[in-house]
Structure of DDE Tnp4 domain-containing protein:
Amino acid sequence: MDSSDDEKDGVYGNHIPKELNHNLPSNGMKFVDEVLNGQSERCLENFRMDKKPPGSDVPPEISLDPRLYPYFKDCVGAVDGIHIPVMVGVDEQGPFRNKSGLLSQNVLAACSFDLKFHYVLAGWEGSASDLRVLNSALTRRNKLQVPEGKYYLVDNKYANMPGFIAPYQAVSYHTNQTTTGYHPQDAKELFNQRHSLLRNATDRIFGALKERFPILLSAPPYPLQTQVKLVVAACALHNYIRREKPDDWLFRMYEQDTLLPMAESLLPLEGEQPIVHVDTRALEFGFQTEQLELASHFRDSIATEMWDDYISGLAS
């Protein structure tokens, strides 16, 4: 897919306003219509990252959790992809067939930790790699913007690079390993453990989205552009409901209390000195090797500070 032309590739995620126009009635159907078909001047506050200055407030989900603050104080959200079933003609199915052999569109989303979408890019074929979709989001006309000095968390499908912090490779990661009786053994493992606790905002926001809009779990018999619009409309309505009714029962199912407590009471093993590892997958984004090394050093500095505090806490 040639992703340089927003109209050609049928991607609509760049035109979703984060704040409803004050002159627009508080009506869901009109909101979606304005989002998808409104004039560009009425969609200037679009579905992307806020351009906040570097000194902007730390998200409360971070500042109020001693496991996460101050280590992730410059983190503004999380980025991940999700495959949504799609229906296309037989002659178009090849590119849309994903690794599981199913037809899908690969949708990239950036979200906040209070479960609001910052940015959505829909319409990429299911066979497209997650890195390729992210590269499209960062280079297109209406691109995903990362404020200077800030970053998003990503999982290990993506590279660790400027603006995006990934977990350490070949180190235990998922939150189901942070239950009682499990204890981190070095700085990288502790970093991955807490990175996972924070990054799971994408799992929760996708869960809430699919729970509320089950049409996203099937392949509706509509033209491809309509199927892409359905994803964007669902995300727009998600934000609309999240803003207008934050205590909605479905959102309560996916609130922050789903984070698992971490047992950190055993003395750790002696950690090794961090070894800088540059993920060469990020080279296709146009970053220089020196930039990738700085990104690796930055991640190591967070892990080291976190580990030092962890050890001090055990010793006190």
Notes: Confidence is low (pLDDT under 50) at residues 1-5, 7-25, 40-55, 257-276.
